[in-house]
Recover the amino acids of this structure.
């Protein structure tokens, strides 16, 4: 199993260099209300020489597929062939409220989007007649087709998909080169891998070469309770996005048996009590979906994730530390933990 490091835009270049020096396989840049992924990865590309770069993830509603393909080709060229294109549909609230894009039939939309992106990255002149995407636009006649003119160090770019539900996981296995997960337990990873494997089989493919990459909030401390507490605000932020019935993280909590606690978190958050919202989450829920505690305990958890099928484990440092020194310390501890596993 390899390690990945999740970046934020603050100190992204320095943290990417630290991860590279520590032997991490890849750095990932998320995309959401705080920053886009592309700007952060452009900075990281210039600050590093060897480490892989991945969008974790670029949001499908944010860009037409042609823009995503051009961005992927450019980042791959700038980095000397180190970029991995992570894509995700986000959720209805973000798609509708932030980007003004319909969220209907997200799996069909994703399939068409990835098809267009792959064809463009392969150097094809792309015309497309899909249910969700048409190139050229209907009624525009003989407009020039989508065609990338960028010079690239390799013929294509690996595509990863973020996925949660069973059908989405099967789609990731069928059409992608990797899966990006978040806030997941080893037991949930094993279930996800089973869904991915079903999609791979449908496409006539095995699991060899497919990257299973969940990212976990990480806090290092001798006292497990203190490490758990350091992550509560991150959980409040993510479980508090949009409508609770459509929030993927709330749905995950319900599936894991913590629906009542997630509902209490939302009630307290609506009342303006963020601290109380964080306290509503049981320590066991955070412990099951994060890396918390001293290095030996992190190593034990890493073994469980590796046994569940993880090939790259993402380390999220921004919740538990706000300084570059603190975030680097977490990356170093995770690297020590992986070494302790023999990985």
């Amino acid at each position: 199993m390899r390690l990945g490091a999740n970046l934020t835009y603050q100190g992204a270049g320095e943290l990417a260099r630290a991860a590279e020096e520590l032997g991490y396989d890849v750095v990932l840049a998320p995309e959401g209300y705080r920053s886009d992924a592309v700007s952060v990865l452009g900075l990281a590309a210039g600050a590093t020489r060897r480490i892989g770069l991945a969008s974790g993830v670029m949001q499908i509603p944010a860009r037409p597929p042609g823009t995503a393909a051009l961005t992927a080709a450019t980042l791959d060229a700038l980095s000397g062939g180190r970029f991995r294109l992570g894509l995700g549909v986000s959720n209805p609230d973000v798609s509708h409220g932030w980007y003004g894009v319909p969220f209907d039939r997200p799996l069909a939309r994703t399939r068409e989007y990835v098809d267009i992106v792959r064809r463009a990255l392969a150097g094809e002149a792309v015309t497309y007649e899909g249910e969700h995407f048409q190139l050229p636009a209907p009624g525009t006649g003989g407009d020039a087709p989508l065609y990338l003119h960028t010079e690239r160090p390799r013929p294509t770019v690996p595509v990863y998909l973020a996925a949660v539900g069973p059908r989405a996981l099967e789609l990731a296995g069928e059409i992608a080169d990797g899966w990006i997960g978040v806030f997941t337990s080893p037991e949930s990873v094993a279930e996800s891998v089973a869904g991915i494997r079903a999609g791979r089989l449908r496409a006539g493919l095995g699991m060899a070469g497919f990257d299973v990459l969940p990212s976990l909030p990480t806090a290092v401390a001798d006292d497990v309770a203190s490490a758990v507490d350091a992550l509560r605000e991150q959980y409040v932020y993510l479980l508090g996005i949009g409508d609770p019935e459509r929030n993927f993280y709330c749905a995950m909590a319900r599936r894991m048996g913590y629906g009542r606690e997630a509902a209490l978190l939302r009630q307290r958050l609506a009342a303006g009590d963020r601290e109380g919202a964080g306290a509503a989450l049981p320590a066991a829920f955070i412990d099951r979906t994060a890396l918390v505690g001293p290095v030996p305990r992190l190593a034990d958890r890493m073994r469980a994730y590796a046994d569940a099928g993880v090939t790259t484990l993402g380390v999220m440092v921004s919740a538990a530390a706000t300084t570059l020194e603190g975030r680097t310390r977490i990356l170093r501890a995770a690297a020590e933990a992986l070494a302790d596993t023999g990985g």
